[in-house]
Amino acid sequence: EISVSPASQSDSKLEWKARKELQAAARKRENEIAKLEAEIEKLENRSSEIDSLMATDEYCNNSAKLMQLQTEKDDISSKLETAYEKWEEISS
User: Looking at domain 7-91, which of 3.30.930, 1.10.287, 1.10.1060, 3.30.1490 is its CATH number?
Assistant: First the structure.
């Protein structure tokens, strides 16, 4: 019969706990990356929509609407830059 000393049992528990913590951290990181990628995709899509809208007669001939779209596009660009930086930070 093999007896396991209390020290080796606690070592095993510590190793198990450390593995679980690493797995949880990896899952959290993967979730953060997935959320950022979804946000980046959403922002890029909206930026493309704005580009298309700006090319239409409705917006080309209306400076107020055009300025509103440009303001939104500038905001999106800023958010995209931040999201890209976070993605690079988390991914590396």
Answer: 1.10.287
Q: Any idea what DSSP says for residue 71?
A: H
Average confidence (pLDDT) over 12-41: 94
Question: To the nearest 10°, the Cα dihedral for 6, 12, 15, 18?
Answer: -70
pTM metric for this prediction? 0.77
Percent of the chain topping pLDDT 90: 78
In angstroms, what CA-CA distances link 30 with 15, 20, 52, 86? 22, 15, 33, 13
CA distance 41 to 35: 10
Q: Would you tell me how many other CB atoms lie within 10 Å of the CB of residue 59? A: 19
